[in-house]
Write a structure and sequence with these properties.
By secondary structure, this protein is mainly beta. β18 and β19 form a beta hairpin. It starts with a strand and ends with a strand.
């Protein structure tokens, strides 16, 4: 039987889909793994055991549901992790929770229910975090000190607005389905005023949805004569709030003052009955809370004292010209684009000194350099308002700054908004062009170098939106194409897991971290310039629920934080933890939910483990692995010898399995042939304690030598370890690490024996 030398010198393709098991023709097949579990691919080609997690704190209430981690990094020296739970947030800095003097957790009250925290889009601006959610008014979180944060509704002044007309809280019935001189009668409320003549009524719901007519005259507050433009289906009564009077009242209006922005108590006097009462606030019947755009100025109506007088506050562009009378048709009554009635802004982004906010298919940009002022106008730095034009629903899911403009993800496609001829975006030159047709979920995307990584519609694909010079546009390939099984169900029953949270770690190695809905973490070593997209799976004794990445307190790397749901002593616990790659003894911590302590006095009893009560834990004491034990009363006891440096936490297993080797024989594939390793050699770096084998069996790799002193941990091993022939099988090599020790595999080589088919 022929023998041949075979070498796996890189694992840079990561874990591959089972659907690719026969694609030996692909160049990357030799670098692919059948299984890569709790190992991370190194940019240089090897794999290393993933770091363990350090326990920080239990969340406020573990039984409420999944909490969300967000971040704010005002500077390189100040990085904060924010725990968003049910109606609260907590703050972490320098690997610890911020507390009040006395030890109680510092908290900020929020309006967000636990079911809504994953719908928040957080857009940072130095010490401010703008928070967007379609069901909540936009808020901003402001940091004044480590233990002084304020959360308040954003006072957009003025907000982006539209001339939407007046919703009528009364039933309406036409006397005929078409023609001129039709009588429209309203029940239950006074709907019409003299200034409505010339406006139109539009039916938005019920069997007459789409009917439209111009108001020819007003007979009384409940009766108007209309000329039908789009016929009614029938003369049935249409329910309240399913029709409205569109456009603005048609009468002259004179402001009482122009003075400074913010001045209140300014009367707006109409020549005819024009104003309607109602409850203050956006989106309700009546004019309180609406905006009058007049002579280039903006007035927010705060009260209606009569049908001809409304009281207002000046919100924008107060000049002497603003106080002049505006004739009929030369002013507008507008409603905030985002409101309790219309839905709040769902997302936002900063670009070219503007804050852009979006909801539904519309987005708006602030005045340049004034993030909370959306006043429209004719000069270049005025606010921007735009609606996506498409033949399908374009509900905006996210926005991010891009190469020349900003990127928009909707439920059906991805867009780019730019200014003409490489100029900054203005209201007069904005161009919005569709780039790809994949569609997006609401999971906030992340920046990864020049690309924007987003979760596609359905939650099972992770796409890389990047500009391609050859086509002068964007493409969005699927980063999970070769590992599509990572978002497929493991069994015939159940549902496919989806990606629910996403983070990007830049240093020391660029990686994407994606939380699946079933609690598994997907990790991708991502170096597009080196054509490295290598996936692995990370699990723990529990379920990952949220992830974020911040600058490490040392400033030399990024730090990945997670929330984890665990079952401890029969109860559900949710912990805030972070992956710690700076262990006490070896380069990496190798247990989860760990508690680490160093003392000048030897430990006989190790305390501080109440978060692992009744759990079986692994122990590394003074660099040596001690027998696993159970936590009782928050403590573990040491048998002699005692220890001064201790790491204690939950075990996790790391597994690697190669693909079946492909060894061409006489120009033919070796797939039909039987294979056997005569000898397997594995090249290691800084490794201790592992098992090596094939499907036929595995052996413990010895690391302790006669030269090592008993009672002390052996030094980390770098070099080659081998095992002999284990029998005929598919020749897939497996590497397993179950001990709380580091493991880095650089290459696998050896001699293969090739048998018959």
């Amino acid at each position: 039987m022929p023998r041949i030398q075979h070498l796996v010198q890189s694992f840079g393709s990561g874990e591959w889909s089972p659907r690719l098991a026969g694609r030996v023709d692909l160049a990357k097949y030799s670098q692919a793994m059948e299984c890569l579990h709790n190992y991370l691919v190194l940019p240089q080609g090897g794999v290393t055991r993933r770091p363990g997690t350090k326990f920080i704190e239990e969340v406020k209430t573990s039984t409420d549901g999944c909490v969300r981690l967000l971040r704010l990094e005002p500077s390189a020296a100040s990085s904060y992790v924010l725990e968003f739970g049910c109606l609260y947030l907590r703050v972490y800095k320098n690997n610890a929770r911020i507390n009040y003097p006395g030890g109680a957790a510092f908290e900020v009250t929020t309006p967000y229910a636990i079911a809504d925290v994953f719908g928040i889009h957080a857009i940072p601006s130095v010490d401010v975090l703008y928070l967007f959610h379609p069901d909540y008014q936009t808020r901003k979180l402001e940091r004044y000190a480590d233990d002084c944060w304020k959360l308040r509704a954003v006072p957009f002044a003025p907000p982006p607005s539209l001339e939407v007309g007046t919703r009528v809280n009364g039933e309406a019935q036409p006397s005929a389905v078409s023609g001129d001189g039709v009588t429209l009668t309203v029940f239950n409320c006074n709907a019409f005023q003299a200034s409505d003549v010339g406006r139109e009524v539009l039916f938005t719901g019920g069997c007459n949805a789409g009917a439209r007519a111009g108001i020819a005259s007003v007979t009384s507050a409940k009766v108007a004569v209309i000329n039908v433009c789009t016929p009614f289906v029938n003369t049935n009564v249409t329910c309240a709030k399913l029709w409205k009077i569109i456009q603005s009242p048609l009468t002259g209006v004179t402001p009482a003052a122009h003075e400074q922005v913010g001045k209140s108590g300014v009367n707006l006097t109409a020549d005819a009955n024009a104003w309607r009462g109602g409850v203050t606030g956006y989106g309700v019947e009546g004019d309180c809370g609406k905006f009058v755009l007049l002579n280039g100025g903006c007035f927010e109506i705060t009260a209606v004292t009569s049908a001809t007088v409304a009281v207002s506050t000046i919100r924008g562009n107060a000049t002497p010209a603003t106080a002049a009378k505006a004739e009929s048709g030369n002013w507008t009554l507008e409603e905030g684009l985002f409101s309790s009635c219309n839905g709040w802004a769902a997302t936002g982004a900063f670009h070219d000194s503007r804050l852009y906010v979006a909801g539904s298919h519309r987005f708006a940009g602030s005045k340049s350099g004034d993030y909370e002022n959306f006043a429209a106008g004719s000069v270049d730095d005025d606010g921007v308002l735009f609606a996506l034009d498409s033949d399908v629903l374009e509900q905006i899911q996210w926005m991010r700054g891009g190469r020349k403009g900003f990127l928009i993800g909707t439920v059906s496609s991805e867009w780019e908004a730019i200014g003409s001829t490489d100029a900054p975006i203005t209201a007069s030159n904005i161009q919005v062009r569709k780039q790809t047709l994949h569609g997006s979920s609401r999971v906030p995307p992340v920046y990864a170098g020049p690309a924007t990584i987003f979760v596609a519609r359905g939650g099972r694909q992770l796409r890389e939106l990047a500009f391609v010079f050859e086509i002068d546009g964007y493409q969005a390939p699927d980063l999970l194409l070769l590992a599509e099984h990572l978002t497929r169900r493991a069994a015939a029953s159940g549902t496919d897991p989806t990606i629910i949270d996403l983070a990007y770690q830049q240093r020391p190695d660029p990686r994407l971290w994606a939380v699946r809905s079933d609690g598994v973490m997907l990790v991708c070593t991502y170096l597009r310039d080196q054509n490295i997209v290598a996936w692995s799976r990370v699990t723990t004794a529990g379920f990952f629920e949220s992830v974020t990445a911040i600058n490490h307190p040392t400033g030399d790397r990024d730090q990945v934080w997670v929330t984890v749901r665990r079952t401890i002593n029969g109860a559900t616990k949710r912990y805030v933890e972070y992956f710690d790659d700076t262990g006490s003894y070896y380069p990496t911590l190798n247990v989860d939910a760990a508690y680490v302590c160093t003392s000048s006095q030897a430990f006989k009893v190790f305390c501080g483990l109440s978060h692992l009560e009744c759990a079986t834990v692994q122990i590394v004491a003074d660099g040596s692995v001690r027998p696993s034990t159970t936590v009782v009363g928050g403590n573990i006891s040491f048998a002699s010898p005692c220890a001064t440096k201790v790491e204690v936490g939950l075990a996790y297993t790391s597994d690697l399995t190669t693909m079946r080797p492909e060894v061409p024989i006489g120009g033919m594939s070796s797939m039909p042939a039987k294979l056997s390793w005569v000898r397997i050699v594995i090249k290691l770096l800084d490794t201790l304690g592992m098992k090596l084998g094939t499907a036929s069996g595995e052996e413990i790799v010895p690391f302790r030598t006669p030269a090592d002193c008993m009672g002390f941990a052996p030094a980390l091993f770098s070099g080659d370890k081998s095992i002999p022939h284990l029998g005929w099988d598919n020749a897939k090599v497996s590497v397993r690490q179950t001990e709380p020790l580091p493991s880095t595999v650089l290459a696998i080589t050896g001699v293969l024996e090739i048998g018959g088919s």
